[in-house]
Design brief:
alpha+beta, FAD/NAD(P)-binding domain, Elongation Factor Tu (Ef-tu), domain 3, 2 domains, 6-stranded mixed β-sheet, 13 helices, transferase
């Protein structure tokens, strides 16, 4: 074997793809333009840098489709998910990580791998030959984006992804705030106190909404449209949908008791989640925003407990480029017009760190099989990976295609019992995850057997 696999983008998907392919004996060149060419959102040149939340969301592999993806990636020796567990922070049932050592560990693992070479040159064109995976994510460079648009014959599709602010813990007034996960969820004391809570009464909440609606916002360039992904809406966009929207979203007051005033029920609660292992930084949960920096500081300091907040990072907004994958990619994640090119990660129309990593895992294994002359069994549709890749490469309606998180709605229906009615949700989700684990394990076992036979 003489041909190398080139992977463009060193985020979650690209890092995972490189790891999977290299561990199958493939020589990999990982192209990451940072730190030579910077982006709006990234702070370092590290691979696998987390630019938005520090959470991989639910780790429940029996009742949650995201947790099931975690389980499948662990079973496949996934670099991203195993590293996330290594740098885990208390988060009340979610898998949150200490983002700086997480990215450093990913970087160290890839740079020290004997089958991986890192290049920091920017790729601006789609290559005519060679085997390539493009995993450039939501911040695909302008030049490369134009090359992709030219090749696909379609205009780039885009929505805007917003970044939540991060607060220094020692600037939070703990005489007003307290530590508690909703409904005291978690197996340990740290988990049950994973979130910092700032309560609002109705008067404070109403004033906060007024200020939020009136604040200066980032302007869009001519010709751009604010097509937000619903799972990552800026708080001001939620507020524009109705004054009570935030109270039923990230500011819902349920499952919490204020120890400073246990007899008073908060009208709304702002939650912050620990962002590093030292506990010196907290991010404001669900507070993605497109407010200008000066306005952010003023509005967020209206939150009880954050009156004197110091911000390690304010929120931001960037354009998120993605393909209309159902029309452009085949079942192997290859560009139909150029089958030597695969796409992976958020640019394919999946949303979130977990889903991006999962698509990188698949792309890396599929490309490695091509380069080593082996044949992979079809990715089982009953697995979480299979349900997601089937959705983006053909299961979704192309005319209305939008970025998607993994969820049980993407899974094939279960064989329900003839009598006795439909299963309850808990039993149904457990049946989905049991079926998925069996299918995924079988797929992995078949690959190991084939590799051993070579």
């Amino acid at each position: 074997m003489t041909q190398e696999l080139h992977i463009v983008g060193g985020g979650m998907a690209g890092a995972e793809a490189a790891w999977q392919a290299a561990n199958r004996g493939v020589q990999v060149v990982l192209h990451e333009m940072r730190p030579k060419v910077k982006t709006f959102a990234h702070q370092t040149g590290n691979l696998g840098e987390m630019v938005c939340s520090n959470s991989f969301r639910s780790d429940d592999d029996e009742q949650n489709a995201v947790g099931l993806l975690h389980w499948e990636m662990r079973a496949a020796g996934g670099l991203i998910i195993t590293t996330a567990h290594r740098h885990r922070l208390p988060a009340g049932g979610a898998l949150a990580v200490d983002r700086e050592p997480f990215a450093q560990t990913i970087t160290d693992a890839l740079t020290s791998h004997p089958n991986i070479r890192i290049s920091h040159e920017e790729i601006t064109e789609l290559p005519e030959d060679g085997q390539w995976i493009f995993a450039t994510g939501p911040l695909t460079s302008e030049a490369l984006g134009q090359a992709i648009a030219k090749e696909t014959g379609t205009d780039r599709l885009a929505f805007f992804d917003a970044i939540a602010p991060i607060v220094h813990a020692d600037s939070i007034d703990m005489s007003k705030a307290w530590m508690q996960s909703r409904y005291d969820k978690g197996d340990t004391e740290d988990e049950r106190k994973a979130y910092l809570n700032c309560p609002m009464d109705k008067e404070t909440y109403d004033a906060f909404i007024d200020a939020l609606l009136a604040a200066d916002k980032t302007e869009f360039h001519e010709g751009e449209t604010a097509g937000y992904f619903d799972g990552c809406l800026p708080i001001e966009v939620m507020a524009e949908r109705g004054r009570e929207t935030l109270r039923h979203g990230p500011m819902k007051p349920v499952g919490l008791t204020n120890p400073h005033a246990p007899e008073i029920k908060a009208h709304a609660v702002v939650q912050l989640r620990r962002d590093n292992a030292l506990g010196t930084l907290f991010n404001i949960v669900g507070f993605q925003t497109k407010m200008k920096y000066g306005a952010q500081a003023n509005v967020f300091r209206m939150i009880p407990g954050l009156e004197n907040a110091r911000f390690a990072r304010l929120g931001g907004i960037h354009r998120n480029t993605f393909l209309n994958s159902p029309t452009l990619l085949d079942a192997q994640m290859r560009l139909r017009s150029r089958p030597n090119i695969r796409f992976a990660g958020q640019i394919t129309g999946v949303e979130g760190y977990v889903e991006s990593s999962a698509m990188g895992l698949l792309a890396g294994r599929l490309a490695a099989a091509d380069l080593t002359g082996s044949t992979l069994p079809e990715v089982p549709q009953d697995s979480a990976h299979g349900a997601l890749v089937h959705h983006i490469t053909g299961g979704a309606e192309a005319k209305t295609f939008q970025p998607m998180n993994v969820n049980f709605g993407l899974f094939r229906p279960l064989d329900e019992p003839v009598r006795g009615g439909r299963r309850g949700r808990k039993d149904r989700y457990k049946a989905y995850t049991d079926r998925a684990k069996e299918a995924w394990s079988g797929w992995l076992d078949a690959q190991e057997a084939a590799q051993a036979a070579q």
